[in-house]
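Hey,
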Amino acid sequence: MLCTSALQGALIQARVERSGRRIEVTATELARLIEAEKR
């Protein structure tokens, strides 16, 4: 469930920030979280 919470948080942050760069960084962090959960 950690991944779902992180994704929801990232989407909310993306809406608030509306910054392309910030979204890119968040997406990278999410990818790391997802990979970590797969292991």
